[in-house]
């Protein structure tokens, strides 16, 4: 579960956005949609901690795994400088809470991604498409410069792209473009977006899954750093802290307490 | 060729096959790391702080990265001593590595309650009394920063418990030496130090503290110089063994703590950086001894003085 | 386009064109850095600790590198207050940047002596009373870790001196808040914190402490979380301005200290990493304000609370 | 005095030993033999401090400066990985105490170097040779694997190479091969070697200069970290601490107090 993998390609695909493909056959074989890896961006004491990045896509045949991330802070900026052919240390696949992509044939699936929450939905979409599920994706971005993966989603189903500033696609938030109730929805993005999705009137009876983010230290369930409130029963509002890295990062929407 | 060096250390109340143990709160109850390697390789295992009742812990974010370190404000989330007795400790029976249970409480009574309950356990080698947690209101830190309170809680726990007692000290004090002498006086069988330094970080974009709890405990390589200094001071001032903790990430770091007077060490934050940290450190330690032709690791203890 | 943001801060007793000043002991008397840039760009200059008589300082090594930090045990080497009055301060007259003189001593009398002599100077804006140097036997640290002694030395210096008094506090204490309140009580016009954390490092090959002095003061980015936490606590507990010090290396670090309640900051170790540190930090700070459309830097002070 | 310089070539020249040549015209023009630079090995908080490295040689025409160093610890190991064409941040030339290489024509010069103390003597030797001084170099090393610069010194004068283990050249310490009194001697190497040189019976009346090392923070005279004991008069044993980075690193041998 700890791998030293070779960077096969690494390039910028939008403002501060990078796509990194690594050779990691074992990871490619075992990873489920929604899972993530925990990356040591540099062998140094600073930055000290690993960075969690979702699995965007896997190529089981070639044994490669794709990541898309935003180089926003110290660690991801360093990561963005790692060259092709060099090795990267990562843990994974991590997370027991994954997107349900099995036995979904012929169902109507709604995938909703916000910004850097879009990448993990791609792997899920591909698995669903393979089974013949009908896919609609609503992909929201801040502006035209950070729109990613649109074409790849179009190959798998219907796609609506939104931008907050209206510089591309439809103007507004993803929630404004949810127009009918799906059988199942999967969502990943900033917390306020996930909350708005969970509370959306058209999604009250649909099954839904949300992928959450939280600051992590260990990434494997040992430190209790990355918890989120998860309700313990359908009936009342009682909740417990569950570890995002271990029980998540994907949780059933109805269990997530905001 | 020289013989394989002996890594065993003797704490008096406990013999360890090597001086490496994961630190409390950084290793859960061992299960996660057992997926990476055989826990029997460790000198001992120190499990997450246990309180009399379940604790939910603090709000998130609980973790912030800092230069060569991190802050945490977990707030002692744990399932409570009953669950530890029923589920966690029995699982650890499959290993012959000694288990040290870290205990915490908000009041003297809570410390006593959890210590008492743990007397029922079958595989506890020692209790580590956490009088130094900075993340709980009215919590352990108050006990760990005052000689009288420190003495009292250690004495009471020692009286009630059937296990050897390790007092885990806070570095957030003016005079670590007098605290260590107080707990020795109170009957502690060993001291372990340091727990985390109280610190904080601010998010300049949100203009708010990074941690929901505002303050948290600083750990990792950044704190090593402070930890090492305190181990040096305390090991000169008490007769009981000292367990060194704070920022250890390499075999050389362990050697520094042993030379400063520690008889064993605990590894915390380094486990997050690399799940194999304890194992790698152990190997580096062995290589160090071989290179220097040191046959018994115990030769190093206190040697820099 | 927005206006150029105002960087000026008002300490009450002293107006600064910006909140950036080099920290004592990390900038000599300014001469070395004057080769790199114009000292008039700084908010103020804090010069090396001055004692009544020349001090030779400690043996070498005096410097050890640690993770994201360093240890120093200079031992207050300085030419004595007479030389400072005759040579160093007059040289600084060519700049209109306020000069803050850091003073130290081994006894109360020494503090008074040096403060008294400095009354003759012509270009001193304030005294920073170093009651926190960990590197001198029977030195300042004793004053800085005890409320009664801290109060006493600040009161006496305040009585004798014609300058505003900044009390520089030690972080090696259980309760920074009560120390800060004691010096406020004693008449301090401001507090500055933190001085260095007491630490050590061991050379595993020589099997001896790296520093000849065994222990030294830890500074640099590693200590920033502790410094920030103490600034947060102290600025909530006293009414006098707080000057934040500890591990600042970037403009964002300065913003963190301001948000925590500091009215100005000092830059120490970062000057060694890059002689242009103060200037770069100043520029980053200005860019931060512009990006966030903040017109007056003083808006940030204490805003994260 | 702060430069961002390009690495022109960087290669290993012995066990853990590296030669780095940088393009730094200003530095090449102004550096005196015995001076050093203070290198930021990486733009990171760990390792935090710069590393002092002596100027081994300069090529004023090409505007390049050569360094030879041992990658022994954390910082120098990181430095050894910096590739050609990349930039390195350094301060220099530093140190007002330099090897006296002017007005030395026709004099007998003895240069004594120990291990990684050999490189700074090369630049001095070249300057002295230009003026027609007669040069003898005694270069001491631990063993054959770390012998460096022998050929270049041979071009400038007589050379004796010694190794402690006898694996190359003469066996023993450099001091065993000082056989006659020179007019002037220059030495750089480990402290015990320098002390033995200063006390050598054949060097009691010769003028001598020693290049010292000390742990440094600022490298420019501001922190008082790097002091050494320097006697303040010829008559008595009184000394003061002087900064190696600023008043040194080269001091008259008779002033150095061990
Ligand atoms: C399960 C999971 C999957 C993720 N997948 C992706 C992905 O596919 N692509 C992508 O661009 N981002 C992803 N993120 C977010 C990504 O981990 C953060 O953006 C990144 O850690 C920030 O690090 P930095 O070096 O840029 O910032 P820094 O400011 O240097 O980070 C400082 C500290 O805060 C933590 N931190 C800061 N922001 C976040 C955040 N949003 N979530 C978690 N920790 C944070 C960092 O991990 C680090 O410990 C994911 C997060 C999680 C938890
Ligand atoms: C004026 C001067 C010129 C020098 N010239 C050369 C040279 O040309 N080639 C060469 O190989 N070495 C030279 N050195 C020694 C070189 O600076 C050290 O070997 C180097 O700093 C060690 O760093 P590290 O990263 O290998 O070790 P680390 O163990 O990472 O060093 C830890 C800390 O100790 C300091 N340190 C350790 N050893 C020394 C030492 N011997 N001198 C000074 N500081 C030390 C480091 O600078 C750092 O701050 C010179 C030293 C000085 C003072
Ligand atoms: C996430 C985290 C949780 C911790 N929880 C506990 C705890 O429950 N009980 C305790 O005594 N110490 C706890 N500690 C402190 C560590 O055991 C250790 O004393 C400290 O982290 C310093 O060691 P390190 O620098 O190797 O991490 C915790 C530390 C961290 C980082
Ligand atoms: C080499 C060195 C010398 C110092 N000398 C003094 C001093 O003379 N007086 C003083 O009050 N503080 C002294 N300090 C402490 C600094 O002023 C500052 O408080 C401390 O280094 C923390 O800031 P930093 O992390 O930015 O360095 C010294 C620090 C260093 C590193
Ligand atoms: S990051 Fe440690 S438990 Fe999730
Ligand atoms: S290294 Fe700072 S004075 Fe020499």
Characterize this entry briefly.
Chain A is mainly β and 258 residues long. Chain A contains 5 helices and 16 strands. The longest helix of chain B is centred in the last third of the chain and has 15 residues, at 277-291.
Topology, please?
The complex is a heterotetramer, with 2 copies of chain A (258 residues) and 2 copies of chain B (305 residues).
Chain A: E1 2-14, E2 17-23, H1 25-30, E3 36-40, E4 51-54, E5 57-59, E6 64-70, H2 74-79, E7 87-94, E8 108-114, H3 119-130, E9 134-141, H4 150-154, E10 158-163, E11 170-171, E12 184-188, H5 191-198, E13 207-211, E14 227-231, E15 239-243, E16 250-252
Parallel strand pairs in A: 8-9, 8-12, 9-10, 10-11, 12-13
Antiparallel strand pairs in A: 1-2, 1-7, 2-6, 3-4, 3-7, 5-6, 13-16, 14-15
Chain B: E1 9-10, E2 15-16, E3 20-22, H1 31-34, E4 45-50, E5 63-66, E6 69-72, H2 81-92, E7 99-103, H3 108-118, E8 126-130, H4 140-144, H5 147-160, E9 165-168, H6 176-185, E10 190-193, E11 197-200, E12 202-203, E13 208-209, E14 215-219, H7 224-237, E15 242-245, H8 251-260, E16 264-267, H9 270-273, H10 277-291
Helix pairs in contact in B: 3-5, 5-6, 6-7, 8-10
The site of one FE2/S2 (inorganic) cluster has 13 residues of chain D, from loops.
3D architecture notes:
The complex is a heterotetramer, with 2 copies of chain A (258 residues) and 2 copies of chain B (305 residues). By secondary structure, chain A is mainly β. Chain A has 2 domains: 2-94, Translation factors (Elongation Factor Tu (Ef-tu), domain 3, Beta Barrel), CATH 2.40.30; 108-255, Rossmann fold (3-Layer(aba) Sandwich). Chain A is built from 5 helices and 16 strands. Chain A has helices spanning 25-30, 74-79, 119-130, 150-154, 191-198, and strands at 2-14, 17-23, 36-40, 51-54, 57-59, 64-70, 87-94, 108-114, 134-141, 158-163, 170-171, 184-188, 207-211, 227-231, 239-243, 250-252. In chain A, the strands form 3 sheets. Chain A has a 7-stranded antiparallel sheet. In chain A, strands 11-10-9-8-12-13-16 form a 7-stranded mixed sheet, sandwiched between helices. In chain A, strands 14-15 form a two-stranded antiparallel sheet. Chain A starts with a strand and ends in a 6-residue tail after the last strand. The mean pLDDT of chain A is 95. Chain B is an alpha/beta fold and 305 residues long. Chain B has one domain (9-57, 75-199, 219-300): TIM Barrel (Alpha-Beta Barrel), CATH 3.20.20. In chain B, 66% of the residues are buried. The A-B interface holds A 1-2, 40, 45-50, 75, 89, 91, 214-228, 240-241, 246 and B 25-28, 31-33, 35-36, 48, 56-57, 60-65, 67-70, 72, 74, 77, 220-221, 249, 269, 271-276. The complex binds flavin-adenine dinucleotide (2 copies), flavin mononucleotide (2 copies) and FE2/S2 (inorganic) cluster (2 copies). One flavin-adenine dinucleotide binds at residues 36, 47, 49, 51-54, 68-70, 72-76, 116, 119-120, 213-216, 249 of chain A.
């Amino acid at each position: 579960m700890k791998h030293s993998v070779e960077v096969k390609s690494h390039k910028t695909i939008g403002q501060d956005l990078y796509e990194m493909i690594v050779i990691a056959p074992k990871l490619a074989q075992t990873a489920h949609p929604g899972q993530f890896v925990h990356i040591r961006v540099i062998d140094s004491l600073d930055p000290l901690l690993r960075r969690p990045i979702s699995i965007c896509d896997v190529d089981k045949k070639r044994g490669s795994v794709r990541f898309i991330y935003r180089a926003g802070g110290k660690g991801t900026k360093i990561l963005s400088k790692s060259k092709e052919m060099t090795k990267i240390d990562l843990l994974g696949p991590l997370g027991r809470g994954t997107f349900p992509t099995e036995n979904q044939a012929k169902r109507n699936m709604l995938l909703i991604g916000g910004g850097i929450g879009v990448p993990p939905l791609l792997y899920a979409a591909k698995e669903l498409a393979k089974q013949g599920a009908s896919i609609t994706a609503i992909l929201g971005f801040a502006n035209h410069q950070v729109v990613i993966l649109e074409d790849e989603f179009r190959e798998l189903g219907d796609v609506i792209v939104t931008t907050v500033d209206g510089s591309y696609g439809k103007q507004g938030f993803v929630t404004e473009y949810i127009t009918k109730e799906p059988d199942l929805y999967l969502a990943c993005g900033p917390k306020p977006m996930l909350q708005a999705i969970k509370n959306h009137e058209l999604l009250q009876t649909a099954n839904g899954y949300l992928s959450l983010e939280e600051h992590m230290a260990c990434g494997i369930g040992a430190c209790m750093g990355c918890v989120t409130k998860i309700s313990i029963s359908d009936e009342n509002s009682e909740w417990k802290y569950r570890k995002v890295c271990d029980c998540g990062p994907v949780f059933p929407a109805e269990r997530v307490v905001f | 060729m020289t013989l394989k060096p002996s890594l065993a250390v003797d704490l008096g109340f406990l013999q360890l096959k090597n001086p490496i143990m994961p630190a409390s709160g950084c290793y859960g109850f061992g299960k996660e790391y057992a997926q990476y390697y055989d826990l029997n390789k460790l000198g001992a295992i120190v499990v997450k702080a246990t309180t009399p009742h379940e604790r939910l812990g603090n709000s998130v974010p609980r973790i912030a990265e800092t230069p060569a370190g991190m802050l945490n404000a977990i707030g002692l989330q744990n399932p409570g001593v009953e669950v530890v007795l029923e589920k966690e400790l029995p699982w650890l029976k499959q290993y012959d590595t000694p288990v040290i249970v870290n205990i915490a409480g908000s009041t003297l009574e809570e410390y006593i309650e959890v210590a008492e309950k743990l007397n029922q356990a079958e595989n506890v080698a020692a209790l580590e009394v956490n009088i130094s947690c900075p993340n709980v209101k009215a919590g352990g830190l108050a006990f760990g920063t005052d000689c009288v309170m420190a003495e009292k809680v250690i004495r009471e726990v020692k009286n009630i418990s059937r296990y050897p007692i390790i007092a885990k000290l806070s570095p957030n004090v003016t005079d670590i030496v007098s605290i260590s002498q107080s707990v020795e006086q109170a009957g502690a069988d060993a001291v372990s130090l340091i727990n985390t330094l109280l610190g904080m970080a601010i998010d300049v974009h949100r203009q708010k503290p990074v941690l929901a709890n505002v303050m948290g405990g600083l750990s990792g390589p950044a704190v090593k110089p402070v930890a090492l200094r305190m181990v040096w001071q305390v090991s000169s001032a008490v007769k009981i063994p000292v367990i060194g903790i704070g920022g250890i990430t390499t075999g050389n770091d362990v050697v520094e703590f042993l030379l400063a007077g520690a008889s064993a060490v605990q590894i915390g934050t380094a486990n997050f950086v690399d799940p194999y940290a304890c194992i790698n450190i152990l190997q580096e330690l062995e290589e160090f001894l071989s290179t220097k032709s040191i046959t018994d690791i115990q030769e190093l203890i206190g040697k820099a003085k």
